Amino acid sequence: MHTEEIFIDTANGEKLAATVFYPQTVRAAVMMAPATGMLRRFYRPFAEYLAAAGFAVITYDNQSIGGSMHGWVSASAASLVSWGRNDMPAVLAHLQTLFPDTGCHLIGHSAGGQLIGLMPNATELKSVFNVACSSGSVRNMPMPFRAKAAFFMRAFIPVSNAVFGCTHSGWVGMGETLPKHVARQWSEWCCGTGYVQTAFGKEVGEHLYGSLDMPAQWLFAVDDDIAVEANVDDMISVFTAMPSEKVKLVPAEHGLQEIGHMKFFSRKSQHLWAMATEWLHRHSE
């Protein structure tokens, strides 16, 4: 296996930093779509594992995140909608260019799975494997986490945006600093129903949520305060034509103390990663 650091041009003139993982023999190609504000390096161990199993992988930073930050974050026009409509299609198209003779799959973490219906070329995916992907509806979260989430969404985001022109998520342990439109939509969608469905007919006009019909598997952990089962069901319901399988992960059943929203991709959870390769093998025939 070897890797290559590249930049990908998007339709709206942005350059996305990406890493390509090349296996010795390519069985299929995988787009690793990140959670909100997560850096591509977070997924490197997982991508290396997939490449060792024969799957080419591309990881990337969304517009105005990590290596894809150009200029001041407070001046960024990036939004969740633009990540889905511009960033994700560009990454998939580049993956297809690199590996034209094999099928492409998407592994989505949280927002990386939520935004698939905004991709105009999403119909070209052979399958979807989502981890901790849900509507993130605050009202379904358990207490006391719900109170913290409500404060972050309804108070911290608007105040930070108003004062700084961006959301300093790291100040409250919520990852990278977010462009104001990303954070605003995140807040509005998580405080609504069906996540992106909240914006249908408003900021989201045409979309593919009702027509995507590739097979999908949705993994969620019982100790995840965000992707609780009600929120997973809420998100699946937006993909009305997608045949979906749900898989509930109980940490103790896998010898783990926690999985939560993030730790499926931790090296400590590496024995869970076979679930992804099994899915990819099954849908790469």
Q: Which descriptors would you attach to this protein?
A:
28% helix, alpha/beta, two-stranded antiparallel ribbon, 285 residues, 8-stranded mixed β-sheet
Class from secondary-structure proportions:
alpha/beta
What general form does the structure show?
globular
Largest sheet: 8 strands, mixed
Distance from first to last alpha carbon = 22 Å
What is the C-alpha radius of gyration, as a whole number of Å? 18 Å
Number of helices: 7
- Residue share in helix: 25-40%
> Which percent range describes the beta-strand content?
15-25%
Strand numbers in spatial order across the main sheet = 1-2-4-3-5-6-9-10
Mean residue pLDDT: 97
* Structure summary, number of beta strands: 10
Order of helices and strands: EEEHEHEHEHEEHEHEH
Ranges with pLDDT <50 over ≥5 residues? none
What does this structure look like?
This protein is of the alpha/beta class and 285 residues long. 28% of the residues lie in helices and 20% in strands. It has helices at residues 44-52, 80-98, 111-114, 145-164, 180-190, 229-236, 274-282, and strands at 2-9, 15-22, 28-33, 55-60, 104-109, 125-131, 166-167, 178-179, 216-221, 244-249. The strands form 2 sheets. It has an 8-stranded mixed β-sheet with strand order 1-2-4-3-5-6-9-10, sandwiched between helices. A two-stranded antiparallel sheet has the order 7-8. Strand 3, helix 1 and strand 4 (55-60) form a beta-alpha-beta unit. Helix 4 (145-164) packs antiparallel against helix 5 (180-190). The chain is globular.
